[in-house]
Amino acid sequence: MIALRGIEFGYDDQPVLAGVDLEIEEGELVLLAGPTGSGKSTLLGVVTGLVPTYSGGTLRGDVTWDGESILHLPARERAGRIGFVGQNPAAWFVTDTVEEELAYAMEQLGLPAATMRRRVEETLDLLGIADLRHRDLRTLSGGQQQRVAIGAVLTMHPRLLVLDEPTSALDPTAAEDVLATLTRLVHDLGVSVLLAEHRIERVVPFADRMVLVRGDGTVEVDVPQVVLERSPIAPPLVDLGRSVGWSPLPLTVREARRRAAALRTPLAEALEVPATAPTDQPAPTGTPVLEARGLSVAHRTTPVLDGVDLALHAGHVTALMGRNGAGKSTLLWTLQGRLARVGGTLLNAGRDPHAVARDERRTLTGMVPQSAADLLYLESVSEECVAADAAADAEPGTCRALLDRLVPGLDDESHPRDLSEGQKLALAVAVVLTTRPAVLLLDEPTRGLDYPGKAALSTILRELAGEGHAVLVATHDVEFVALTCDRVVVLAEGEVVSSGPTREVVAESPSFAPQVTKVLGPPWLKVAEVEKALQGSLA
Ligand SMILES: Nc1ncnc2c1ncn2[C@@H]1O[C@H](COP(=O)(O)OP(=O)(O)OP(=O)(O)O)[C@@H](O)[C@H]1O
Ligand SMILES: Nc1ncnc2c1ncn2[C@@H]1O[C@H](COP(=O)(O)OP(=O)(O)OP(=O)(O)O)[C@@H](O)[C@H]1O
Fold this sequence. Notes:
This protein has 22 helices and 19 strands. The chain is globular, with a radius of gyration of 23 Å. The protein folds into three domains: 2-232, Rossmann fold; 234-278 and 524-539, no CATH class; 290-514, 3-Layer(aba) Sandwich (Rossmann fold), CATH 3.40.50. By secondary structure, it is of the alpha/beta class. Bound molecules: adenosine-5'-triphosphate (2 copies). Residues 11, 14, 16, 34, 36-42, 55-56, 414, 418-423, 448 line the site of one adenosine-5'-triphosphate.
């Protein structure tokens, strides 16, 4: 259906894509993966036509649709057949309400009113957003926005859907629902899907083929099984498979569980030995750094948080999880002090953050917001880093060193606006971490980060905790939680519905359990724990 031939693309003297050939057939779901900043969004842009029209840069090669070149067909004329949802869907909204947004693209195509009406209704149901239909787009949570954006392109019935990290803001259940919906379109209607994603554990089970963009701008294209044999980008299941020598590699939890039978005895034995059994941080004791009691918060007249109790202790990393729209971002901004509450008490180091002046709040609490790029306002990576060091009175080079751990080797002179999403996020995280606040709040800090980047963030947060900081991470990334967090607090409809040690909370929940727990059962959470236990039992 669509074919890329000999695609080369770059900015001035910086090559991004170096000779990409790719064909996508009708009714195929193709997963695009690769390191942060490797060129995934760029490749999607070549397909939609947004690159090079809006990106600048030089493009060589050809793009054909049913055999005819569309290289010079502008993006808006490709839009009827190629539907695109970008990494930051809210930035693309053109109307005010959910219903208007779903109808907008069809109006542009001049479809009859009755058709539009029917497709809006179908789409609201397909994506489970019927109750949001009259809502103002600006008041939606991140995950709600992502679903509306996907719905808005589906109404056009495109033959090819191009999606950039479509599940990054979705809770695990919503992500599975959206992927199941896409798969149904692929199987039943012959729609094709090209989808870039970092959390490939979510997509691999649905993918027909996988494209790995290597760091040098070339690609490897094959079935996921083959690409993952050697890929530096691999989900925990594949890491586990490689570690214990499974071949072929299992791609689904179900396959892995069958293979895992042989591990049960040695793992059970390892549990009996203190040196090889997984251990948890002892439960926090003493006075918390930050304590909220009975917090209630409303957006205008709509109650969002209802009687939330939460305590953050020095030395601990806590995860805040829960469905899209549960109130996680609202809670973080309330703890930070920006949002007013209608009830309850809140103390950070003995003070009420809402009552302190805005500038001083920043010294009490570090906050990486969901749209992390909002924190970046200077002209280059190095200016951001130098300013962050100066503002925090940190040793020169501190921010840059943090950044290099998250995404190595960014050019000092790059403009933050030109960074990939993951690079922007890493820079914003580095800027906030440089101030080393006693309390650190992060809202979905793994979007756009590859597995090595996430592992580095995990290590950095553990180090900060080790030095006595208190950290709270709102996230849907169950694998990151398993790797990083001691405790988990789950919100549902503005109330805390469960909280406790990570191992207990996620083991009890089919949607929050990481892959290792799903395959091996509790108490196993991480590949490293399994490796340690098996080495111990062989020794
Ligand atoms: N306008 C620009 N000028 C110079 N370099 C750019 C520009 N836009 C993007 N880049 C660079 O091109 C490379 C590819 O970016 P792209 O957004 O395609 O990466 P990605 O693989 O999608 O990353 P992520 O995983 O973070 O989403 C990055 O190194 C980025 O810094
Ligand atoms: N300004 C606003 N006016 C009205 N309702 C709002 C406003 N901002 C947020 N909401 C609603 O409050 C609820 C909680 O939103 P919040 O962003 O805190 O959720 P979340 O748990 O962070 O969601 P996600 O996981 O999707 O990011 C949602 O139903 C959201 O639609």
